[in-house]
Amino acid sequence: GSRGSGDGVVTGNHLDGGSEQTKNKATYQWQVRSDAGDGSRGSADSKAAKCVQYGDVVFLQNNWMDNRWLSGSRGSEGNGVATRNHLDGGNEENDVKTTYQWQVRSNAGDGSHGPRGSADPKATQCVQYGDIVFLQNRWMDNRWLSGSRGSGDGVGTWNHLDGGYEENNVKTTYQWQFRADAGDGSRGSADVEATPAPRPEPTPAPTPEPTPEPTPAPTSEPTPASGAIQYGDMVFLQNNWMDNRWLSGSR
C-alpha cells in the first residue's frame, strides 16, 4: 500500500542505507510513457522499443502503486506537483489532462507550452541514459519541474525563466539526470546504461570485401542506439542541485 495519500512528491535520498533504499525503492522508479497506459505499473507502452526524443511529450508513471502519474502546475499559482490518478474518469482525466504531460528538453526553451512547446535544439535526437534534461509541464506557460527545494526535499513547478532568482541562482534545481540505476549519489555520475566510449579494435588480417548491400531509405523513427531511453523504460530521475536527491512519488 501507499504511504500517506499516494499523492506526495519529494526529492529524497534513495541511498540512505535504510527504508528509502530498501522498502521504498519503487517510489523512486518512473516509467517513461508515450501514453497514460491502463494504470497498472509496468504495462506495455504503445511506442515500446522506440526511443524518447528531445522535444517529445511524455507521461511519467510512478512504480510504487497503480494509477499514479506525475502531475504539475497544480494549485492557484501553478507551483504544485503531485502523483495522482489521471484515469479517474472525472476531473483528472478530462479537465486537467495536460498537467500530466511533460516535454523532455535539452534546454529550457522559451517557456511556451503548446501545442508541443517551443522547438528543442536537439529535436529528433534520442535522449540517452546519463543525459541531463529539463522537464516542462504542458498545462501552462513557464512551468518546469524543480527539485531539492527548501531543506532539499521540496518539489514544484516554477518559472525558471523569471529573469531573477529562479533563472540565475537555482538553475540546476531544474535539471534532471535520466538514469537506469540510482548511481552513487554524486551529481552527473556515469550511468550503467550510458553508451561507453568506443574502444579501438585490433586490426584484423585483410579479407576480401563482399559487395555492399544497397543502403535502405531512412525510416521516420530513429533506431534506438545503445544507451538510448526507450518508451516503457523504468528510470530514476536525479536532481542536479545537490548530491543524493532523486524524484520520489506516491508518498
Summarize the structure in words.
The protein is mostly beta strands and 251 residues long. The model has no long low-confidence stretch (mean pLDDT 91). Helix content is 3%, strand content 23%. The protein is globular and about 45 Å long. It has a six-stranded antiparallel beta barrel. It has a two-stranded antiparallel sheet with strand order 1-12. Strands 4-5 form a two-stranded antiparallel sheet. The protein has helices spanning 91-94, 165-168, and strands spanning 10-12, 30-33, 57-62, 69-74, 80-84, 102-105, 132-137, 144-149, 154-158, 176-179, 234-239, 246-248. The protein contains two helices and twelve strands; from the N terminus they run E-E-E-E-E-H-E-E-E-E-H-E-E-E.
Shape: globular
Q: State which percent range the strand residues make up.
A: 15-25%
Largest sheet: 6 strands, antiparallel, barrel
Q: Biggest sheet: strands side by side, in what order? A: 2-3-6-7-10-11
What structural category arises from helix and sheet content?
mainly beta
Q: What is the helix/strand order? A: EEEEEHEEEEHEEE
Give the beta-strand count: 12
Radius of gyration: 19 Å
What fraction, in percent, of the residue positions are helical? under 10%
| Arithmetic mean pLDDT | 91
Individual helix count: 2
Alpha-carbon distance between the termini? Answer: 10 Å
Low-confidence stretches: none
Task: List the main descriptive attributes of the protein structure presented here.
251 residues, mainly beta, 6-stranded antiparallel beta barrel, two-stranded antiparallel sheet, 12 strands
